[in-house]
Amino acid sequence: MLMEEQSSSGEDEGSREKGVLHRWQGYFCGVTPERLLLTRPVLHAALGTLHGLLLTEDGHVYSFGEQPWKRVSSQPAGPVLESALKEQHVISVSAGSYHSSAVTEDGIVHMWGENSQGQCGISGMDQVPNPTPVSVVDGETHPPQLVQVLNVACGAHHTLALSRKHEVWAWGSGCQLGLVTSVFPVWTPQKVEHLVGRYVIQIACGGFHSLALVQFLPSPEASQQARDKCGQCKQSIYTMTEKDDHVIISDEHYCPLGVELADTKQGRRSGQSSPAQTPQTKNSSPNSCVSPLSSKIICEGQGSSSESQQNTTSQETQLHLAVSETGHARLRRTQSTPYPDEQALKDYLKRISDQTLAEQTEATSVGGSLPPSRQSSLTCPFRSDQSDELTLRPSSPTPSRPDRITASTRQRSASDTFTERKYSLQLLPILDSTSDDSSQHSSVDGGICISDLLISNGCLFESCEGGGETAGMDFCPDDSLQSKKSTSLTDITLEDAEAHDRRGSLPGFSPVSPSDSHGTNNLRAIVGAVTTSSTSESRNLLPSLYTEVWSWGRGQEGQLGHGDYLPRLQPLCIKSLRKKEVVKITAGANHSLALTAQCQVYSWGSDKFGQLGHMNAPCTVPNLTTISDGIRVWDVAAGQTHTLLLSDGDCYQPILYYSGEQVLENADSAHPLSGTYTQTPTLLPFCMNIGYVSKVFGGGLNCLALADQNAMGFIATVHELASAERKFYCTLSKVKRQILSPLLGRAILASSLGQSSMLLFQEMAGSFSKLCHLTGQHSVSLTNFLQRGKVIKTLVLIKNTAIFIDTYKEYSNPVGNFLVMGGFQSLLKPSQELFGKKLELIQSLLESKEKNPSPCDLLVNLFYMPLQHLHGYNRLLLKLANCFEVNTEEYQWIQNGCSKYEALARLVSKQRKDAELTFNFWKNFKGKNSESLRKPSRRLVCESSNKALTLQNAGRFSASWFILFSDVLIHAQGTIPSKKLFSSHFIYPLATLWVEPISDESVGILALKLTTPEDSFVVLASSPLEKGKWLRAINQAIEDVLAAGLNRRTRVSRSSQNGDPPVSRTSTHTFSKEGRLKDASYEGRWLSGKPHGKGILKWPDGTVYCGTFKNGLEDGFGDYMMPNTTLNKFERYQGHWKEGKMHGFGTYWHASGEVYEGSFRDNMRHGHGMLRSGKLASPSSSSVFVGQWVQGKRTGYGVCDDFSRGEKYMGIWLDDQQHGDGVVITQFGLYYEGNFSNNKMMGNGILLCDDDTVFEGEFSEDWTLCGKGVLFMPNGDSLDGVFDGHWGSGLRVAGTFTKPFETLRRESKMPVSGQHAVPAEEKWKAVFEECWDRLGCETPGQGVCKRAWESIAISLTARRRQQRDSPEELSRSQTKMLESLEVIPQHVGPVTADSYNNIRRYLMKACDTPLHPLGWLLETLVTVYRMTYVGVGANRRLLQQAVEEIQSYLTRIFQIVRFLFPGLPEDGGFILDSSSSSEEGSDSLNSSTHSESPQHGWIVSSSSLLLPVLLPRLYPPLFTLYTLEKEREEEVYWNCVLRLNKQPDLALLAFLGVQQKFWPVSISVLGEIKQVLPSTKDACFATAVETLQQISTAFTPSEKLQVIQLTFEEVTQDVQAVLGQEFLWSMDDLFPIFLYVVLRARIRNLGSEVSLIEDLTDSSLQLGQLGFMLTTLKACYNQIQLEKTT
């Protein structure tokens, strides 16, 4: 016996209060446990046959007991530190019969002890004296990786390890390894392939068998698809055949590639019994089955004796069962047929049936039922449960079994070998798919909510199995069972729906709706796994309850739990423990235990010494241990022949039960066993004296209990919390199993409740189930908390309050809704039919002390009972907080959680009161329309039946009754208020109700004004108290509605200071009163009863407005669509509104195809705009008009391009007609100019032809020459007289022909274009007015500069917000530019050179941004300019007007710029530069350094400031006009250039008369000096030539002048290189050289370039040096045209 270890003097007393181990043997009354004292508290322990291990808090391992492998002379009395592990931090220890293991925190396994069977995994040693690391290596990965281990379990001859990836590894000897091998021992850890892909959470080893606890991790999509297709040939497994009145669904798929091996339905998924299973044939007899015993490796042996391995082949040797007299199966070898004979089969079936009868003693179904472990799994009506073994199909439909079978005969064998299961099933609604009594597991942890699954009035179907209850699953014993055809299931025929994957996941059929003939409800099966929202997050926080137990190894004592005594070479699932919520497994030498979340213990295996703890029950399948009612087991341990149970009793201190063999006191160690044993678990009386036990351990004959003393009340409180939670979960499970499931299974329930209440009941049941599941998970979590260190920060109840709060709220609402709708009254009758008149079952579940409670109250209390548990949380958390000092972090943390639960408890309590109040209100309400007003979620707040509120100015005989609900205010009107009968009522939703107190003399001080979108009325209160009460009540109700949010979107509006709801809010309303908005629905922001802010307004005819509102009217930016009934298309306007009308800039798409883009005023086009008429609008004409509009008509200057007639009109309009001065150009090059009236040119005008023929005279309509006029020929001849006729079709002329002499010809002046054209400054006035308007000025130039800047900032910000809502995202650079433009440039006083540069930069940015008024102006001007001068408008006659128009733009934009920057000088003004050099080189031309004045500075002009921005955009159309004007000259010039360029350099220089001293002698090519030869070409002055060529790539005149200047400098440098730096030019020397450079540059359209520079350059720049250079270039151009090459 171990001696109590003496504690060292310096030991901390606190460590002796927690983690103290107590050891004893047997169950004598007088047994006193010994204390094992260590310096540190013990966290964990493990016991072998004669030795044990202890793990302390600091990660050290101690061993004690007999350890022969230690090779020491004498065994020490007490625990000894394992020094080899001293440097490691160990996290778990485990002990086998004679070997030990420890796992360190980095996942490394250390083994020591007996190793003769390879159980330590270290080859070459029979015994391992000290802990030695064992490498677990995954060789399947490349490169092989070291596997980190979480936990280890040890048996007699084998060891299992659980990796951090939740895979199982094994080594040692025997079939209990689960490895596909016949060679033992296995020295290196091997992966148990059969469990790959499953999520193993616990492992346990018996003497010669193994257990694994596997968590469900189904992924419905992937696994479903896999099950729908054959694993090999990939064809569909299921076929559907449509008959006249039903559908046959068959899974008789024959795979042409043979039997699936890798992943058959009976293979890896369900755990086949052996690797070498015999394939089956279709023509086997229907009653025969494959014996699961044929295998290559047979495990034999009894107890712990060494086993013998024997290899036999399945052909020669088959094992069969025979039933001996004692009822135990024995193994018998035969050399006969491969299958058992029929008699043996029947005997086996009968024996198993008899054994399993004990399982269903409590079953209460009407016509007899299947045992819980055998019930059909029916999550969808298309399939029954699946078999674990390979299925045999009958060869013919002839029944080979009797037609009528009794219920008892229908029990299937425990090994599930017999798969004939064709029952006519009655479908029943499913409760949920989460708990012990459901057969379908949800795909995520944490329960499933029925409301999520319901489709209209549809319902889920599933059998509820488990706990001995069949929950209304009726199997009629008289139904005939045919071996091939099953009876119809509603209108679906099931054919052989067997041998599917044994997991309860559904196959992927498309749902088929049953007909309505089966009752009033058209029940729809929902096929497919469903996930719930809040539960996925709890998966990692709370332990899973979706578990199954797998076992393998020797089974001669039934310790595998499969209903037989056969060994299993590979893991197989124990079917009866599915859905039992097993949370812990453990194993003794020859027995196994499973602990469930509901605090029940299942045991199976050897019961020779009563270690299973149940009487007369079969020991080959799991059965419940017999234990008194109210005792809840929460930890188990198993030794060699005993079981130890740790339980909750009446008080919170845990109690211990012992079951198994008695150990003699004071006996010699050789014969300690007494031979007596317990019949059922026995209470150990000493357990109350050793403190609060948190964990028990067993091994050999020993028992250990790990206990804590109650320091500061903390330990007791935590135990109380865990105990209360376990008790609560057991109660909830009982309610679910004994109340909810039977109720949901009742066929008449739907008719009793009615459709709406049935849905509410199902929703409530679903929420209940979810809450129940969460509680189960939490209770297990609390047990883990007790056993693993008790660190308060890991307490899920406080760490993740949200999960609990959400689940409780989710449950509170449906219960309240069910109560309000009177559901509990309707539920009473079905409940009484099931549970008796007084509902005694419910009384017992509620533990009600009340005498003769009303049955209805009992039902209400039962479903409100779970919510009462919140008070328990609150109380215990407060108690827990008091265990800590007030200033500690833990105290604050617990208090914080506590306050949340307190608030939740108050909320839930209030919700119940509100529901009861509302229910009583409806009970007494006699209004006609009560049913239409009675909604499940609607709660009564207050009502005015006591005349507390009356309508102002109501008639003498009318009566008003105001009822305030949680979502609406109802105003009922009638004439007999005393009887509460009303003729009409008005409903005002609270979201769009505004209430304000008014106190003026006309109405008195008791009035309240109620405002709704369409009504506003005043009510009078009976007293100031009533007024205050109603005001508060309405405001609070509105606040609550708004907090709940629009369409369940949580949108908490900000309240005002005094607690009133916000005046501005988001809501939905449909207008009903006559007027513009009749029947329109509005969703968006409101302000005091009117739409205000963003919103959407929809009319029934399809008209929609989406945009901003102000005081109930469209105002701001909006998008409007309206159907056009005649064309059956939509018209759309997108733009700005004001006071309900289109006002401002926008785009209107007409149904006819016309598109107008421009300004509106009062719903009409007004201001500048562009109208595009497509062919759809008027097939004869398609045109574009851009110009000014006044009140919907074209008035003012505008340009119209008529594509169909090929004409462009540029001129004045009046009332949609061309009226005033104008120009028309035709596509044939004719140019008309004159005065128009009513779209016709009348009176004097000019006609110019392409060949320079000009007519000046009188016109009549349609361009007819009619009256006096003069015709000028291109050569100067003229014809003066009276003309008549059309141009181009012969003219009749009476007049004088004049051919002047040469001198007179030069003097005679031909008419030129532009006399009747609209002056440039009169054009596009509307565009500039719009820009001034955007700057906040009513007339151009009149306004306040500061206000203009504010307008710019406002418009930019507003547009940016608008842009943010649009789908086109702004780029980062655009956003940055917008942000910089929102900053107003600050400068005071006159503009300096620096601020001038800033202004220039600002203008560049502004003009690049269309959202800026200047940017918009520029963009619009570019558009109208291109509209005018592109296409037909590209006529050389328009050049002068085009240039003037640009100059007019510059002047008018400069006016705006000077308005924004008042410090700028006038056009042509001068700014002094403080620094000597200009900042940017490109602007040096604008600097006055080129003038003669000695001062440095800037000349400010409209062109220097704005041309760099404007001209690049207008350059293409403008330059085209120049080239057309200069066409003939350019042709002569270009021909000369081409001819002269054929000459080599020296010849050309000589031809042009360049003096020889200027001829380059040598040139540098790529750094290499080359001589200039007579044949050299394109080499002389090459740099200057390249520079001059850049003139074509420059846009503005100043840039072009700069290019010319640089060219001159390059020429000068080349000459100075030859003649020295002092050389100065004379014109005679310079001109020929420059002429050479111009010729070699080969510039196309040089004349146009020169003209453009001349026309658009500042007069200041045309003086001095630059002017001289330009003149030289022009002279060269003219000279080249005159050169005659010889």
Please provide a written account of the structure.
The structure is a single chain. This protein is an alpha+beta fold. 27% of the residues lie in helices and 26% in strands. The strands form 16 sheets. The chain has a 19-stranded antiparallel beta sheet. Strands 32, 33, 34, 35 and 36 form a five-stranded antiparallel beta sheet that branches. A hairpin with a 2-residue loop joins strand 60 (1231-1237) and strand 61. Helix 13 (855-881) packs antiparallel against helix 14 (889-924), helix 27 (1582-1589) packs antiparallel against helix 28 and helix 28 (1597-1619) packs across helix 31 (1664-1682). It is elongated, with a radius of gyration of 50 Å. The N and C termini lie far apart (135 Å). The relative contact order is 0.04.
Task: Supply the key terms.
alpha+beta; single chain; 1686 residues; 5-stranded antiparallel sheet; 19-stranded antiparallel sheet
